[in-house]
């Protein structure tokens, strides 16, 4: 048997690079299986291993589910940390980018959107029921196989939450998928932040482009408000008391959602509206999303 993971797994190509390290497609020399080899950057910490990597390892060891990427192996040696995951063909962003590059306009089939959405909320329900928020849901962190399986990946920003919810870091979730309560400076938040991200990803799959591709937090809020209307104390009690609320946001009316996502039927629009509810307390949970009528015609046993 090979002595180290670097000996056992042959790097074939680099497939990604992020804040916390590089990811390679690799082959297991022992059985020929393809896998994803994540090489984490080692920060200068007393423990020697980045807290983000330790968090990801601890969480993934707890999460065994068909819609969550499987952690196969871990090794820390020679000043490096390697995580070996099951190999999945591509991520959702790359798949959608491929559609966008086609010369003739091609949209994602609504049946496929429905399948991916159900798998996503099913995976998030599994996480949330175990006290884990992802906090960085975006198309790049959703892996999709050629046979239609979706797996949630990259738990580097995740953490276990407690009831009552505590104050967490402000800088979580990629800007385009960031919940408005985080954008407005709320310190204590709950799994509802993940469900906002799910809603933004839902709209992006349907429309073939991001819903709110902003370049800063203020622009992100402005784009959200121009779509969903500027929140008020009636629609979101306590919003004007949040740290980063600004009366200069303006008063925007809410757009009809059928104009925002014209391909969705009435049930699809209802699901989207409930995922993008301003008030986190009223936002649809993953468990309730699984039971939404939009999924009634989906063969759930086959996804």
UniProtKB/TrEMBL annotation:
<comment type="subunit">
    <text>May form a complex composed of at least the catalytic subunit CRK2 and a cyclin.</text>
</comment>
<dbReference type="GO" id="GO:0007165">
    <property type="term" value="P:signal transduction"/>
</dbReference>
<dbReference type="GO" id="GO:0030332">
    <property type="term" value="F:cyclin binding"/>
</dbReference>
<keyword id="KW-0597">Phosphoprotein</keyword>
<dbReference type="GO" id="GO:0010468">
    <property type="term" value="P:regulation of gene expression"/>
</dbReference>
<keyword id="KW-0723">Serine/threonine-protein kinase</keyword>
<protein>
    <recommendedName>
        <fullName>Cyclin-dependent kinase 2 homolog</fullName>
        <ecNumber>2.7.11.22</ecNumber>
    </recommendedName>
</protein>
<keyword id="KW-0808">Transferase</keyword>
<keyword id="KW-0418">Kinase</keyword>
<dbReference type="GO" id="GO:0005737">
    <property type="term" value="C:cytoplasm"/>
</dbReference>
<dbReference type="GO" id="GO:0005634">
    <property type="term" value="C:nucleus"/>
</dbReference>
<dbReference type="GO" id="GO:0000082">
    <property type="term" value="P:G1/S transition of mitotic cell cycle"/>
</dbReference>
<dbReference type="InterPro" id="IPR000719">
    <property type="entry name" value="Prot_kinase_dom"/>
</dbReference>
<feature type="domain" description="Protein kinase">
    <location>
        <begin position="9"/>
        <end position="295"/>
    </location>
</feature>
<keyword id="KW-0067">ATP-binding</keyword>
<dbReference type="InterPro" id="IPR008271">
    <property type="entry name" value="Ser/Thr_kinase_AS"/>
</dbReference>
<dbReference type="InterPro" id="IPR017441">
    <property type="entry name" value="Protein_kinase_ATP_BS"/>
</dbReference>
<dbReference type="GO" id="GO:0004693">
    <property type="term" value="F:cyclin-dependent protein serine/threonine kinase activity"/>
</dbReference>
<feature type="binding site">
    <location>
        <position position="38"/>
    </location>
    <ligand>
        <name>ATP</name>
    </ligand>
</feature>
<dbReference type="Pfam" id="PF00069">
    <property type="entry name" value="Pkinase"/>
</dbReference>
<dbReference type="GO" id="GO:0010389">
    <property type="term" value="P:regulation of G2/M transition of mitotic cell cycle"/>
</dbReference>
<dbReference type="InterPro" id="IPR011009">
    <property type="entry name" value="Kinase-like_dom_sf"/>
</dbReference>
<keyword id="KW-0547">Nucleotide-binding</keyword>
<dbReference type="GO" id="GO:0000307">
    <property type="term" value="C:cyclin-dependent protein kinase holoenzyme complex"/>
</dbReference>
<dbReference type="InterPro" id="IPR050108">
    <property type="entry name" value="CDK"/>
</dbReference>
<dbReference type="GO" id="GO:0005524">
    <property type="term" value="F:ATP binding"/>
</dbReference>
<comment type="similarity">
    <text>Belongs to the protein kinase superfamily. CMGC Ser/Thr protein kinase family. CDC2/CDKX subfamily.</text>
</comment>
